[in-house]
Amino acid sequence: KTFRPRKKFEPGTQRFELYKKAQASLKSGLDLKAVVQLPPGESINDWIAVHVVDFFNRINLIYGTMSEYCTEKSCPIMSGGLKYEYRWQDDSKYKKPTKLSAPQYMCMLMDWIEMLINNEDIFPTRIGVPFPKQFQQVCTKILTRLFRVFVHVYIHHFDSIINMGAEAHVNTCYKHFYYFIREFSLIDHRELEPL
């Protein structure tokens, strides 16, 4: 229900080339702290856009692989342990922070992110079309909410991840995500406290 097909970059575009560069560096065994740094001469907004879409794809896949263990019964509240509860709010149906089960929250989150990254006014794909002024603020909100998926998975479902043999993948994805958000100060440090 929350698993989506991967969002792809159009071959021949600048973002496709940045995506290939980012993927090649990740596969080369380089230090993840170095891999997230902005390549010389590249646009910060393009670099962030490529990573936001890639993290959406990866985190969606991580949650999709273990979503059968995250049910209305096992996770009636979207939380990160006893200390952290995450409520959903958007600009349409949920105007006030609303308590949801983890599966409901994940579904709302993935739909919301997909809508944003497919919106040409926010994530333009045509050459010469500028990013909106609030682009990095939107990305901060997306990444903050994606971080909550890691929190929930690590605290409530890591045994399932281990049983699937996927912990190395999840840990590497998290480290890449963490170094990226820290490199560009994209998430408030208070949000990071659960992990």
From TrEMBL:
Keywords: Kinase, Metal-binding, Transferase, Zinc. InterPro entries: MOB_kinase_act_fam (IPR005301), MOB_kinase_act_sf (IPR036703). PANTHER family: MPS ONE BINDER KINASE ACTIVATOR-LIKE MOB. This is MOB kinase activator 3C. SMART domains: Mob1_phocein. It comes from Opisthocomus hoazin. The lineage of its organism: Eukaryota, Metazoa, Chordata, Craniata, Vertebrata. Signal peptide: none annotated. One of its GO terms (molecular function) is kinase activity. SUPFAM superfamilies: Mob1/phocein. Zn(2+) binds at residues 70, 75, 152, 157. It holds the Pfam family Mob1_phocein. The keyword Ribonucleoprotein does not apply.
